[in-house]
Design a protein that fits this description.
Structural class: alpha/beta
Largest sheet: 5 strands, mixed
CATH topology of the largest domain: D-Maltodextrin-Binding Protein, domain 2
Strand content: 5-15%
Strand order of the largest sheet: 2-1-3-11-6
CATH class of the largest domain: Alpha Beta
Helix content: 40-55%
Distance between the termini: 18 Å
Shape: globular
Number of strands: 11
Length: 431
């Protein structure tokens, strides 16, 4: 097997055993488009129904739910696309896996008129995540980003006002330490750890991959740099000084929220779901209203004072299957799905932020998420994780070498990480 095709090996091997799915359209009547969606609270199915109605009989949309785990979603879609499955019309794609599907031609090219329509008023982070090799290859749908959430009482005691003045990681680490509180961060050996590492490196002015479009055996990592060392210093300090609490090595987004809501909560980096989740706990009596009143929000912490942060970027883009028998209709449907009105509706009801900036002006959005303007601002600054066909190898290599946080040091971790990932990409070592 050629070294440059390592990242596509999984899809090729699995394709041998993959049966072709049934045709996506019925024998008679309008074409039926199948939209493969990530699990949510029913919001995508509702939009599918609304777009079916507005199509006036030109097509209908049926949803098919993918596995909950993002890696399992990637594996299923890649396997079926490698088998040239014509039933895959529309896909809800996690941005890190887009280059892997775009590189072998599994995604239908986005027509110029569609590109013009779906990029208008879209936040920069979502555009970056929808692009591969300077070409828009997917349609931005909803975008996500992490904010700095803080307990107003803790910030006030520390003399900080994150809402008015950006704060640094050093400032919030000092505040937590001085007040014997915990920082709520994600230290589990999982994708959430990669998200944290990438945000720190990007906020420090660096990149995990210097040439993300290069073949596997030519990829250069940017971790053995001041930016990589700064990221390792922050993670290692939080780990060794116990600032993240005793459960840091197994702490994911949900566990972070529990810590933040507890008596030792102080500052937290996390996605916008924490607001509606906390509201729900207050409404059912699990948490007190005083906690909700004590929560503030601001942009992601800076690594270097005075230098804008590069918050995490996540979300979902819509890809159109290259082997669909209804590519034109699929792009027509995709444009319906991502209208600002549908994005606003999806945010207000399912908690997933829009990629379109105008959707944030919707009153239902402002009522449900009073921090909507900060989320929009954060998405303009947000940086995607490494855009590469070899993302799975890169992310797994980072998790292997930057865990547990207490073992991370600026002297050795960037080098260990670079050596492992480089060896894996060159076929010299297995993860």
């Amino acid at each position: 097997m050629g070294r440059r095709r390592r990242a596509l090996a999984l899809v090729t091997v699995l394709a041998v055993a993959a049966p072709l799915a049934a045709c996506a359209s019925t024998a008679s009547g309008p074409p039926v488009l199948t939209w493969y969606i990530n699990p949510d609270n029913g919001g995508q199915a509702e939009i599918a129904q609304q777009c079916t109605e507005s199509a006036g009989g030109a097509y209908s949309i049926e949803t098919s739910v993918l596995p909950r785990n993002a890696s399992a979603q990637r594996e299923q879609l890649a396997r079926r696309l490698a088998a040239k499955d014509s039933s895959i019309d529309i896909m809800s794609l996690d941005p890190p896996f887009i280059p892997e599907l775009a590189e072998p031609g599994f995604l239908a090219p986005v027509p110029p008129d569609v590109q013009a329509a779906v990029t208008k008023d879209v936040v920069q982070g979502a555009l970056d995540g929808a692009t591969w090799k300077d070409e828009l290859v997917t349609v931005p749908f909803w975008a996500n980003t992490q904010l700095l959430w803080y307990r107003k009482s803790v910030a006030e005691t520390a003399g900080l006002d994150p809402e008015k003045t950006p704060v640094t990681w050093q400032q919030i680490m000092d505040a937590a330490k001085d007040q014997d509180k915990y920082l709520a961060v994600q230290g589990k050996k999982a994708e959430s750890l990669t998200v944290w590492i990438n945000a720190l490196v990007e906020s420090a002015g660096g990149q995990i991959l210097e040439n993300p479009e290069a073949p596997a055996d030519e990829v250069q990592l940017g971790l053995e740099t001041p930016a990589g060392e700064a990221a390792a210093t922050i993670i290692g300090t939080i780990g060794t000084e116990g600032l993240g609490g005793p459960g840091l090595p197994t702490e994911d987004e949900g566990a972070s929220l529990s810590i933040f809501q507890g008596d030792k909560g102080s500052f937290m980096v996390n996605w916008p779901f924490v607001w509606s989740a906390t509201q729900a706990s207050v409404e059912d009596g699990t948490l007190d209203q005083s906690l909700l009143d004590d929560i503030g929000w601001a942009l992601y912490p800076q690594v270097t004072e005075g230098t804008e942060s590069a918050p995490p970027y996540g979300g979902i883009n819509l890809g159109i299957g290259a082997y669909s028998t209804h590519v034109d209709l699929a792009y027509e449907a995709a444009q319906c799905i991502v209208t600002p009105e549908h994005q606003a509706q999806y945010f207000a009801t399912n908690g997933n932020p829009p990629s379109n900036t105008t959707a944030y002006d919707d009153q239902a959005v402002k009522d449900a998420f009073p921090m909507a303007d900060v989320i929009r601002e954060s998405l303009e600054l947000a940086a995607p994780r490494p855009q590469t066909p070899y993302y799975n190898e890169v992310s797994s290599g980072l998790q292997e070498t930057w865990h547990p946080p207490s073992a991370v040091t600026p002297e050795k971790t960037p080098t260990e990480s670079t050596d492992l990932i480089t060896a894996v990409l060159r076929g010299e070592q297995l993860l």
